[in-house]
Amino acid sequence: MTQHHPRIFFIGDELISGLGDVRALGWTGRVLARTQLTPPIFPFTFVYPEADLYTISTHWETDVLPRLDPEGDNRLVLGVGSHDLDKGVSNVRSRLYLANIIDTAVKKNIQPLVVGPTPRRDVSPSTINALSTAYQEVCRRRAVPYVETFGPLVKHEQWTTDLALGNGYVPHQTGYGLIAWLVLNQGWYQWLGINPQ
């Protein structure tokens, strides 16, 4: 008899891939290591380096939809990042792209969860906070779990130190550990319908 492993599709920019983590786990690997399900999760990761949400919105269906389990539990984790700011995309447009991704996923019976943008060294905190707030509002209106990373990390000493070791956008090992902790403690287990590990 075929086992239907829950399929979780991670999509996003280079933060989804764990770029810069010497342990090569990133936050997604750390989260999965703390998530015990029977049968185990079948994870898929699709990385769009330095991509804004428009780019992700035009590619993710091609990558994800052919790999869905038509009889199983399919879920989508979207790491929204903040490259929209680099491309000059307005917050209104960013909200629209996020809403389109979420709405499409829900129509395809894929349960979404969104991980918000992290602080960075080259963009003012107020600018990223405004973007995160916009994303959070989209998720709130659709009753989709949103993991807020900006607020908890913006003045976190370990995050700031770790970010300084990288390129100002991606952290190193400690930073990914902090993101993983936030994901695990802001609704991950509830989203999956299991008890915390």
Describe this protein with a few key phrases.
197 residues; alpha/beta; five-stranded parallel sheet; globular
Explain how this protein is built:
The protein has 197 residues and is of the alpha/beta class. The protein contains nine helices and five strands; from the N terminus they run βααβαβααβαβααα. It has a five-stranded parallel sheet with strand order 2-1-3-4-5, sandwiched between helices. α2 crosses α9, α5 packs parallel to α6 and α8 packs across α9. The longest helix is centred in the last third of the chain and has 20 residues. The protein starts with 6 loop residues before the first strand and ends in a 5-residue tail after the last helix.
Number of distinct beta strands: 5
Terminus-to-terminus distance: 28 Å
Largest sheet: 5 strands, parallel
Unreliable runs: none
Report the C-alpha radius of gyration, rounded.
Answer: 16 Å
Strand fraction equals: 5-15%
Instruction: Write the element-wise H/E pattern from the N-terminal end onward.
Output: EHHEHEHHEHEHHH
